[in-house]
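fwd from M.: "can u put these together and see what the complex looks like"

so here's what she sent:
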Amino acid sequence: MMTDLLFDDAATFPTPLLVLFAVDIATTGRDADALPTLLTTSDALSDAVGEFLTSGEFRAECGETLLLHRPAGLRAERLLIVGLGKVKALCPAELRKAAGTAVRFARKRNLQSAALHFPEDRALSDEHLETLDCLPSARALVEGAVLANYEPDTYRSDRTDHDLQRVTVLAPAQQNSTQEEIRSGFAEGEIIAAAQNFARVLVNEPGNILTPTELGRRAAAMAADVGLSCEVHSTAKLKELGMGAFLAVAQGSAEPPALVVMRYEPEVTLSPDAPVLALVGKGITFDTGGISIKGAEGMHLMKYDMAGAAAMLGAMQAIAALKLPVRVLCIVCSAENMPSSTAYKPGDVLTAMSGKTIEVLNTDAEGRLVLADGLHYAKTLGATHLIDAATLTGACIVALGKLNSGLFSNDEDTCDRFLQAYRAAGEHFWRLPCSDDYKPLIKSSIADIQNTGMDRYGGAITAAMFLKEFAGDTPWVHLDIAGQAWIDDARSYIAKGPSGVAVRSIVEWVRSYTTA
Ligand code: BES
Ligand code: ZN
Ligand code: ZN
């Protein structure tokens, strides 16, 4: 899809679909009915909508739409009004959804292109004025549009191409400084949404196509595209490094593992003591559970058990394209978790790269094993700060449901940066504890630690405690994205299937370390 930005009058712009945004300015308690208001200062546009807005048919609720054909006085064939909800709650996240709603609306009707009118906060009276910052608004608009254009029907023979060819953002003439902000936000949005869609494409691939080797190939191809250095290793290198935990998970499959090591070195020179951030992703391309095999129900979805790796690769793509002045490493630990005569077994004792010994109680707790070696390896490569993303536990879904991902950290500053990052990115995480009080839960009688707790309680926390052992004193954030990496039901603005969750938040977290 092409996206472009024009500083032009929407009333004279020819398009199959012109999209206008509206908010509800009613104050609860005072106005019984909704008071929908258009976010435009153009009289021509307001006149074209006319009485539809006051008819009571449209309340400007979040995601609500109203379509007018052949709007009078405009060159657009259709005018779509999309609700942003209450004015008090107006924020970029609502714009992202609304732009997505508009694109999904256009796709359904097979339209080739659409134009989005940049929302003007100036349209609101002083009493209701909620300032919309131009940069994040422009960014959110483009993100919503590009993310909404993705469909996971890759392998359908009857796939009809409903993709929009072009989305134009039309911003009314502005001061130069404002135009600059809108341009920057627009460019960032394009990069970040493309990166998130890249992650979604990877997550959507079935296990027979996206093997660890293929994940390595796709990572290398992306790296070459954006100019990142990238090495992809397999069994021999894992043995050389002594990655006993990662190797154990891989040994049950005929598919060899892949260890991806990517490096991003910014063009600007940074001081030698500038932070080195490491992004570590769980890349289990299929998780059967191994010898502790999973039930048949829903097992096919375990192809998405590499969503953490995909999020990190997506983030790297964006970081490189945005040219963020921060040093970043990315480690992806990819394997297939299979039961076989060569598979690792419950009761096995493994020696991780760090030297710690691990008793395997359950071979389905494999993600933490590959990450244990990935986190330790990142430290040996000079990482000063660690972040990992993983579809790590069903327990995290039990704890938080599917609207929030789990967030764990051993360091307040690092965690605070992530809290701000996910809010800026418009994603949802919820912090869960991992204080040393929980350490006894993973104490083993035969080895240093065991890979699960003794019961199912607090499973997301025991998994985090396990990883914490390998983060050690290095500031670390752990994201358990099991509940959000795959969306069960299509939403108005996003297809069902792979979500690409965490890409945006990770990019913002990395940005927070910008010093130049
Ligand atoms: N990949 C799963 C976690 C998962 C579950 C991801 C549902 C997405 C949706 C992970 O490897 C796993 O199987 N975890 C076990 C751990 C248990 C054996 C301690 C779990 O959560 O049941
Ligand atoms: Zn598992
Ligand atoms: Zn898994």
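replying to her w this: The longest strand covers residues 276-287.
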